[in-house]
Amino acid sequence: MEDRKSRDDNDDPPFSTSILALLRSGKRDKTWADMKKIVFLFLVCALALSGCGMFQSKKSKDKKSAVDKRADAKLRDENADVDFQAFVGRLKKAVAAHDVNTLASMMTENFGYSLNPEKSGEGVFQFWDENGLWTELDAILTERFVKKDDFWVAPPQFADPSLNYTGYRVGIARVKGSWKFVYFVNG
Fold this sequence. Notes:
Elements: H1 2-10, H2 14-25, H3 27-50, H4 58-71, H5 82-97, H6 100-106, E1 107-115, E2 118-120, H7 124-131, H8 134-141, E3 146-148, E4 151-154, E5 168-175, E6 178-186
Helix pairs in contact: 5-8
């Protein structure tokens, strides 16, 4: 009986024997250590090359710098007044919802909506509907407002005379102590 018990204790399943043999021989440990070194070197190289400017195209840098130069036109600071920001926020919501009653209350009586031919006052909403200008107005209102003469205008390119901006633009001014939407024109 003792003989059988000692044989059972000494008989390891073949799987565990092969693992023990590998660990004793050191072949698996050495291979694993080599793999760790290779992975580490690969990661270090990837990190080093990602920070390198070698893979960036020169064209994209030139385009970005040209755009930055135009955008950095010497403009006056944007209006940080809380009441102005609140007015612009309400204006954006009213335009997004096509809420003509709210917009009418935010506009001046002689609201300008066309330069050629010159149009102002009544008919602005019909003009926007006929020409599909609601989305354009919505997009312009997402731009930053800057000071130009007596108005706060968007987009900021309009305020820079060197750019000769002729696209759509929005003007807001203080009229009798409150902010009013004065114009949305193209040209």
